[in-house]
Amino acid sequence: MFALRTYQKEAITAVANWFRENEEPCLIFASVGAGKSLIAAHIALSIVRRGGKVLVIAPSEELVSQNEQEFISYTGDNLSTGAICASLNRKELGKPITYATPGTAINHPQHYDVICFDECHIGDFNKAESLVSGVVQQNPKARVIGLSGTPYRSTSNVHGKNKFFKECVYSITMGELIEAGFLCKYRFGLDKQEQKLDFSNVRITSGRFNGADLEREAAKQDRLTASIIHEVTQVMTQYTGAFIFGASVRHCEEIMSSLPANEARLITGDTAKVERRQAIADAKAGIVKYLVSRDTLFTGINLPTFDVIVWLRPTESRVIFDQGIGRAIRTSPGKDHALILDYAGNIEKHCNSQISNEASQQRKATYDQVCFSCGCINRNTARECEGCHEKFVFKLCESCGYKNDIAGRSCKSCSAELIDPNDNLDRQAATERKTGEYVNVHKMSVKKIGGRDKPKILVIYETDNGEVTECHLHNMNLPFVKPQWRDFVSDVRGPWFKGLYEHDKVIEVADSFMCPQQLRVKASKKGYWKVLERIMG
Known about the structure:
With 537 residues, the chain is α/β, with parallel strands linked by helices. 30% of the residues lie in helices and 22% in strands. Helix 2 (36-48) packs across helix 3. The two termini are 20 Å apart.
């Protein structure tokens, strides 16, 4: 098992803290290359160790397979996982951890304590009839976690008070990962890049560029496309591999006609699964240098050696633009930077303050924070500029002066602890208000007592002061009982579980409960010890 990065630990802790106080779904914003699958793997491992079951949903077979392999690589455990995925010809039910696509998971309902949605921005959780909503409805008591490197759809975030995901509990941006050396730097364009495809006459239909218009405009400029590809092949003598995005399938075929046949592969929605896997395998092996597509290579593809993105199509979607860049900026030995070649006006659309086209005007309400360093227009919720990575809000490290993310706990530059002076005041005041004494706990046991009509759960702690007990009433859903029981379950089983209100179920999973290291107790007037706080290891 290899070590987690600091921000990955912080993300996992943030989710745990959220579920200690809330039951609503939460989201982690982790940029491409942040290791979302590793974060999900650690969360899954924590739950399985406590006797729980986890479902990890991904939108494609590639991501299903990648997420499962990440867990196996991280834990060395290939017995706890199974997959439900028609494309992979797998249907392994009853495993502690199940990896699946939404379409196959909904057809094989099972009980899960936690559901993780990878690339959660793709699913529409606000529509009851959607596949992802159906998966959640099958497990109404499950904790739900979303992970995304682009947590927004159209003109708004996928989290908020009125959204399915109520809170973004942690974020790690592309800029922070680049600064930390976890992603490579990228630059836009060539020194003398004068050629450009004209898509100004393409209409927007239902918020998206009209497909027929795109194909028509691309066909008009076939000679220019050939000239651009010639320029790209000249550039590629200094680079390893390129993703090329065309305006339509026909346009992609035209692009292919100008590329070396033995070094290029076309992948579309109609490409057979076997051919698709072989093309990606050949790209990983260095046999294929160019992967051409319209819209099927933005997620689920991990080719760290590929270092060039070529845009020969416009995109109205900031999500697609960001994910396109993300394909090329993963680190690889000998890789100094990634090159983004845009021949379709996407950089001006998404990264420049001079925005005049209709699609950008529709986004103006969302991307309305202007960076005074470079002039780039950003989302109004952005913490840093997407163009130059200048931070709008930050927490200054007193040790080295580095500007850290406002939610950071430690400095990204020198690892010094970042503490808000107000936090110290709160902590000090809270300590002074605490009463009772601390006792060491050696053993904990859980029993069911009482009759059938009024069963109770008795918890017995063996401590330095003798036996300490706490009793939870038969009806754990009563308003005055539920918070106490929820806190107990959160402490001894972890914050990932909810709805553990059946007494027989409690006894069934009691062996997975963690024993506190200490208790803070207070003697009651009747001579009993009252448990005020459980201090976990």
